[in-house]
Amino acid sequence: MEEITGNIIKICKALADSTRLKILNLLSRQEMAVCELIEALDLSQPAVSHHLKLLKQACLITDSREGKWVLYNIDRDNYNQAMQTVQSFLQNVQDNLERGVPLSPIRTQPCLCEVLKSKAKT
Any bridge partners for residue 72, and if so which? Predict the structure, then answer.
């Protein structure tokens, strides 16, 4: 579960930025070089490179060198796996919600917090 959670966090962090979402959208349409992304996004080269690095660390994109150009694509296999992982997690949360979320025992046993605190100290 920790590995899955770590993957979801990495994916969500990569997707939690409008520029990175724009990059993914652009790359879903065609392979692009950094200079093309700079032009399409109206950003500096260091800014685009930073966003590409984060997407690559999340295994959502891949790059390949063609002469002096570095071309970027969505890594389809890893992208599909990432989306399945996130969908599976969200489906699990949805299933739990549909079963009903029980009330906290604190509602009926207010002193339970003190018991839990004392357990944590030992």
Answer: 32, 63
Structural domain range at position 33: 1-122
Tell me: the pLDDT tens digits for 73-97?
Answer: 999 999 999 999 999 999 999 999 9
Q: Report H helices in the chain.
A: 2-15, 18-29, 34-41, 45-57, 76-99, 112-121
d(CA 122, CA 118) in angstroms, rounded, equals: 7
CA 73 – CA 110 distance, rounded (Å): 55
CATH of the domain at 114: 1.10.10.10
Quote the number of domains for the chain.
Answer: 1
Residue type present at position 39: E
β partners of residue 74: 61
